[in-house]
Amino acid sequence: MGKIRILEANVANQIAAGEVVERPAAVIKELLENSLDAGATRVMIDFSRGGKALMRVEDDGSGMLPEEAELSLARHATSKIRQAKDLDQIATFGFRGEALPSIASVSRFTLQTRPAAEAHGVEILVNGGKILHQKDHGMAPGTRIEVANLFHPVPARLKFLKSDETESAHIIRLVRLYALAHPEVGFLLREDGREIFRSPRQAPLLDRLREIWGRQVAEEVTLMPVFERSGMKLSGMLGRPGVSRGTRQELVTVVNGRPVDSRTMAFALTESYHTLIPKGRYPLAFVFLEIDPAWVDVNVHPAKREIRFRDEAKVRNFIIEAILSVLRAKVESDVGFPVVPTPTLPGALPVSPMSPVPSVSAVPASPLPPLVVPVSVPPVSASPALRLGWRLLGRLREERAVFETPTGVAILDLGAAHQRVLYEKILEQFQGQQVISQPLLVPLTMELEPLAASVLKERGTLLTAAGFNFEEYGRNFWRVAALPFWLEPDDALTFIRDLLAEMARREGDFGKPSLAYDALAKLAVHRARRKGDTIADAEVMELVQALFRTTQPGTCPKGRKTYWEWTDGEMTRRFS
Ligand code: ADP
Ligand code: MG
């Protein structure tokens, strides 16, 4: 260990950058927020290679004088707060004065800025935190910041960047959030010069959502009337009853113009929808809360993404009250939530598999998955269950079955057994590369949010191997032309969205094919979980036989027991 000393400024900045700038989207976020704080009415964002090569944010805001520009690159230099007590009343995005010096310390950074009252602007060029030059620069009023070669000065951090697709998806999502949250500002987002979206100033909210988020989502929501009470105001757009998502990606909450993660708000929204969407899922919602800044603590997360309310319960109750009043009114009057007809699908056809599989004809065209999936029967003299000597005695509460066994009595959970059988069947297909896929007569179309689309692009081959067939047509629009045998067309879009979200969340698990197949099969069976009471008595014995052909008949893929057995010895003891 050396002597204790104070870190050199640039080293301190690079360390701070570790917290503020976790990925390219975080740079865009800081720059965007500065533009908004500077009163911009137009913001243009450009990036290339997921932001790794270049990011540029240009605004028509207040600009800075040359001496301010220089100061803005010094640590803890901010024009937004002066004293700690100002933290109780934050009305701006920034306040720590950390972003610019941090970003400039880990990139090649160009700042050009000019206040409207000045004849010309200034340009400062910084590389890895070292100022290379500062000179006069002719430009329109406003500020333009360019960040090139992010993390080149700190190569260790380059390793943590994800693919261009993924980083780009994060940037797009972020800019969408801010564009939606700020109707007073016009946004233009471009990737490699290609326009991704443009949101005109002051357009009606639903139109903005359509421009920014896409047509499909805009059709699934309806505008809510503004709800105001006890100093709080809620407005926005809410998903129709029945519309749900497996993640919170499209449960967007904005507080005083700041897109945030708030458990309290997400929980309140989900609560309000609890009778309208399936359990464990999230509603689709874009809501804007206006509240006295003194009631909000934004200083709890390094990137200020999470916030806390001084009185969480009060906010939660307010939101539940607001949403319920809207939903109730809508449901009663039955207007405002136009019921969009679900496209009628002709159902999947039984079709030839991608490679010859003998049991294809056993894949039914019925809307329900086969209960006992066709397992290629190994050459055994007697069926395992018969050899096992289990005799069906009857059903117990429908979803269980009771058996006499050579050594006692067994109770089988039909749902868990079904899951085990289906799980191994799916895995077996993956391993044998003999996947049964069902082409759809009418392909489904789906619009994905960018992160999901990027996952689909990166992991496309895995999904094709699982029996899906996707085709991209236009940015973030996809056609689904075939599904694995275990997935129902009616269920498919929701399953795919959930799957992609899960894949994005558990990147590691889906990186290696073997793990990916396992994870996918688990999701599939979780989905396919049927209540035991839909299993006919005649099918129970088939299920038992299939179960005992699996590698682990004793548990479902999640580890729950499939059956319990009480031996004769145990019973005798109980009776003695
Ligand atoms: P903070 O936003 O926390 O104050 P930053 O490092 O992000 O810290 O910015 C430092 C200062 O630089 C800001 O307080 C502001 O005065 C100035 N600044 C940054 N970006 C802009 C911009 N786009 N237009 C005008 N001023 C800006
Ligand atoms: Mg800032």
Features:
576 residues; alpha+beta; Heat Shock Protein 90; Ribosomal Protein S5, domain 2; eight-stranded mixed sheet; five-stranded mixed sheet; 19 helices; 24 strands; binds adenosine-5'-diphosphate
Task: Give a short synopsis of this structure.
The protein is an alpha+beta fold.
How many beta-strand runs?
24
When the domains are counted, the total is: 3
What does the main sheet amount to?
A: 8 strands, mixed
Highest-level CATH class of the largest domain: Alpha Beta
Low-confidence stretches: 334-381
Terminal-residue CA separation: 73 Å
Considering DSSP H and I runs of 4 or more, what fraction of the residues is helical?
25-40%
Shape: elongated
Oligomer: single chain
CATH fourth-tier homologous superfamily of the largest domain: Histidine kinase-like ATPase, C-terminal domain
CATH architecture descriptor of the largest domain: 2-Layer Sandwich
Secondary-structure-based class equals alpha+beta
What's the arrangement of secondary structure elements?
Blueprint: H1 9-20, H2 24-37, E1 42-48, E2 54-59, H3 66-72, H4 99-105, E3 108-114, E4 121-127, E5 130-137, E6 142-148, H5 155-158, H6 164-181, E7 186-191, E8 194-199, H7 205-213, H8 215-219, E9 221-229, E10 232-239, E11 244-245, E12 251-255, E13 258-260, H9 263-272, E14 282-283, E15 285-290, E16 296-297, E17 308-309, H10 312-333, H11 384-388, E18 391-396, E19 400-405, E20 408-413, H12 414-432, E21 437-447, H13 450-458, H14 460-465, E22 469-472, E23 477-484, H15 489-505, H16 507-511, H17 513-528, H18 537-549, E24 563-567, H19 568-575
Parallel strand pairs: 1-7, 12-15
Antiparallel strand pairs: 1-2, 2-6, 3-4, 3-6, 4-5, 7-8, 9-10, 10-15, 11-14, 12-13, 16-17, 18-19, 19-20, 20-24, 21-23, 22-23
Helix pairs in contact: 1-4, 2-6, 6-13, 9-10, 12-17, 12-18, 13-15
Bound molecules: adenosine-5'-diphosphate and magnesium ion.
Residues 30, 33-34, 94, 99 line the site of magnesium ion.
